Amino acid sequence: MNRQDFPILERLVHGHPLVYLDNAATTQKPQCVIDAISEEYVSVNANVHRGVHYLSQQATEFHESARHSVCRFINAHSPQEIVFTRGTTESLNLMAFSYGERFLSEGDEVILTQMEHHSNIVPWQMLRDRKGVVLRIAPIDERGTLKIEEVEKLFTPRTRLLSICHVSNVLGTVNPIRQLADMAHAHGAHLLVDAAQSVPHFPVDVQALDCDFLAFSGHKMYGPTGVGVLYGRESLLDAMPPYQGGGEMIARVTFEKTTYERLPFKFEAGTPDYVGTHALAVGIDYMKAIGMTRIHEYEKSLTDYAMQRLADLPGVILYGRTDDKDAVVSFNLAGIHHLDVGTLLDQLGIAIRTGHHCAQPLMERYGVEGMCRASFALYNTREEIDALADGILRVQRMF
Ligand code: PLP
């Protein structure tokens, strides 16, 4: 779908046409996003907010209209609920620091799951070490499905937050967020969703999901690197203290006392990546023009096809066989190290990711050091999955 919009897909790697299957790590960029970045530097660039001159006002307009785009894209109530960050990782660190400061005390509990990315584990561990917060870990079954009844059992009167990925970056498991939101709220807790692997792939509506917070990255959704989002319910964000101090986030500073800006600016210290936010909005428009449901259906058909092709090959061990699975296929080849698989496929121009995928506890759950991962975007094709399957056979013949 729309391959011609992505110039990088034309290039050769080691003399072969590029087969790019590392989209869960980052997606390639369509020409319109690349143009938006260079056009802003060519004709608009100036620092945003409070500038009275023309360029500053235009750049501010681009930046703030990007906030409105993101707001509409995830159906937030208001742009005040959209905090721009560097990416999912920074959004989650902001949460651990700022939510942690306001809502968590020693002995309070946060529930995570076995399938979390390190960025939804380590900030909470850092908070645990600072404040004595208790982390509880919800298990998954062998197929990679969250054990919902076990999650329910982890709630206690001290549970304040459930923080969970919408889609696992390793297993592709799509978690039932609305059900988990209802569960968390019934126990008086909040729900934070790591949506790094969902927002790029299917419609995400924070009101329908009823989540309290949601984090995602621009670079995984055809946008630029270095820009991401934290959505939060206005009343909760309002109650949380700033995460970093500096310019842009203050109302008034004296040496005795500083008052902070209103939402969302109090969480956005320093010059924002205003070129990035504008380009992110262009990327969002690009996806919307294709249609998120259409993207989802197409990628789902690719995922199903890949699962079927790889399952038919001898010696392929597949991880993540849930019914609701999205755009990620992880596997190992019996008797061959994952790094060898990745290196040899690369020689054929096929880019997959190998290693622990920033999910070492999940690797431990499956008793492996690492896995190979093919992950899909709207521009991938069945022919590329066939190339992967042929590549796997060639790798196996070398051993
Ligand atoms: N969470 C999940 C599920 C991810 O897949 C990733 C990136 O791979 C992240 C968080 C971190 O995203 P970023 O590196 O863009 O901050």
Structural descriptors:
binds pyridoxal-5'-phosphate, Aspartate Aminotransferase, domain 2, 2 domains, four-stranded antiparallel β-sheet, Aspartate Aminotransferase, domain 1, 399 residues, seven-stranded mixed β-sheet, 17% strand, alpha/beta
Descriptive notes:
Helix 2 packs across helix 9 (274-290). The mean pLDDT is 97. With 399 residues, the protein is of the alpha/beta class. It has helices at 31-43, 54-73, 88-103, 122-131, 148-154, 177-186, 206-209, 234-239, 274-290, 292-311, 338-347, 360-366, 382-397, and strands at 12-13, 16-17, 19-20, 82-85, 109-113, 134-138, 159-165, 190-194, 213-217, 228-232, 250-253, 258-260, 316-319, 328-333, 350-351, 353-355, 371-375. Helices cover 39% and strands 17% of the residues. It has two domains: 33-288, Aspartate Aminotransferase, domain 2 (3-Layer(aba) Sandwich), CATH 3.40.640; 291-397, Aspartate Aminotransferase, domain 1 (Alpha-Beta Complex). Strands 4-10-9-8-7-5-6 form a seven-stranded mixed sheet, sandwiched between helices. The protein has a four-stranded antiparallel sheet with strand order 13-14-17-16, with helices on one face. Strands 1-2 form a two-stranded antiparallel ribbon. The chain has 13 helices and 17 strands. The chain is globular.
